[in-house]
Structure formats: structure tokens, C-alpha cells
Amino acid sequence: MTMGVVACFSADFGVINEISRSPTVSRIVAIVLAVTMSSALFSEDADPGKLSDADQALIDKTVDGNLAKPLKLYQAYQKGLDDAATKTLKDLDKVKGDAMKKGNLPLAIAVDAKEKEIKNGLLSGAIIEKNKDAEKQQTLATESGSGHSTKNLTVPASSNGEIIGDLVTGQNIELSYVSGKWGDGGALNNLSPDDIGTPGGCRIELITPDGTTVVVGTNTVNQPWHYRIDQSGKYLLRTCDTSPADNPGSVIYKVTIHDP
């Protein structure tokens, strides 16, 4: 009888409902099998079989649905990321529950793996990457004959430096705060580097080719900050925090490069 129950269970998770109408012994067997299968379902040794293209598409659609407006979520910073992760996990739980009811092991295991990725912070990474794509689309093309180029540059608080570009002596950088807040990974959070009262560690700085750092001024949203290039090479923007790895949030600056 047990072998028959196992075979039936592996074909359809809903069989427990049928067995539960049987005598007490059968119900006990069903419960034991349910617990055993649940514990083994997501083990590393489980053999899920092949995940169908349709099931993979379902997972992708569930996750991407929460990233439909990546730039908006990203600019909401840590709260936006947390809310997106929570919503995605809730939606994926529904997909996994349906898969378990139907006995679709490949889908259930794939969803479980995706949930673990999200819990490990990979959703934040996905939003960042999508935001970078959106940023590229928003970058304004160099105006022919105007002598300058403009783009919006997103600077995550955890970044060691976001590249402005390879500049040459005589050019000028013009920086204007657009939006965003960040923190130092400790007590300081939701601060704008453009506010006069923001502590030094949460300000923003320009890194020159030789490693020299120059703190960007405040109130650039109203009065852009300018810097004349005195050495050719790569220039970057980053938070003034010297240990930024765990810092939350990001800011966006409008960067305009003026030719000599």
C-alpha cells in the first residue's frame, strides 16, 4: 500500500486530500510522506527534472513585474529596495504554492532558488543594473557644435567611484544635484550630499586621475559646482566615506562637460 501511495503522491500533491478520507493508518502514512517530501523538496540532492520554458518565463515575469519601474524604485533607495524584495517574495510564494499543489517539482525548486537569491540581496543588484540601462537611455547626446555634453550619473553610496569620463586639460566639469539620498552604513541615513548641514562622510567628492579628492560643494541644485580640468585622465564621483561597501542609497548628479 505504501508504494502505491508514494507513486500517487509524486504524481499529484493533492493526493493527500484523497488519502485523508481513508482509515487512520492511511492518514498517518500520508502525513509522514508529506513531511518527508517537504523536507526533501528543496535539498541540494533533489532531482527536480527539467524546468520548462513556460515555467521559467513565469518566474521571470513574477520578478520583473516588481521591477517595472526600476528607476523609480532605485531612487526610493533602501525602502524602495526592501519593498520590492518583500513584494517579489510574496508573489513567488504564490507561484511556489501552486507548483507544489500540482506536483510541479522543477518549478517549485526553481522558485525556491530564486527566493534565496532575492534574500541574499540580488534583487537590489537587478534594480541597479536595470537603472543603469535606463540611465544610458536618458543620457543626453552631445549637442553638435555646442561645445558641451550632458548626462545624468547615478552614484551608489556603496561605490568606490562612478566614472564621469576621460577628460582633457582645459575642459570644465559642471555638477548639479538631481535627486537621491544615502547613508554611511551606520547611524547616518537618508542624507543629501547637497544639503549644507550634511556631515563630511556623507558628502560627495570628485576623484582626479592622480587620486586627489576634491569635495563637491553644496546647494548645487540651485548653483552648479564647477571644476577646471588641470590634468588629463579619468575622473570619478563617489561618497566621501572611505569604507563605502555597506552604505545604503544613491544619488544622481547632472554632469555637464564643457570644452575649452
What would the CATH topology of the largest domain be?
Jelly Rolls
What's the CATH architecture name of the largest domain?
A: Sandwich
CATH superfamily of the largest domain: Galactose-binding lectin
Just give the CATH class of the largest domain: Mainly Beta
Largest sheet: 4 strands, antiparallel
Spatial strand sequence of the major β-sheet: 1-8-3-6
> Ranges with pLDDT <50 over ≥5 residues?
1-22, 29-33, 69-78, 137-145
Q: How many DSSP H or I helices?
A: 8
- Could you say which structural class the secondary elements and strand pairing correspond to? alpha+beta
Strand content: 15-25%
As a whole number of angstroms, the C-alpha radius of gyration is 26 Å
How many distinct beta strands? 8
Helix content: 40-55%
Series of secondary-structure elements, N-terminal to C-terminal: HHHHHHHHEEEEEEEE
How many structurally independent domains?
A: 3
> What would the average pLDDT be, to the nearest integer?
74
Q: Globular, elongated, flat, extended or rod-shaped: what is the shape? A: elongated
Measured distance between first and last alpha carbons: 87 Å
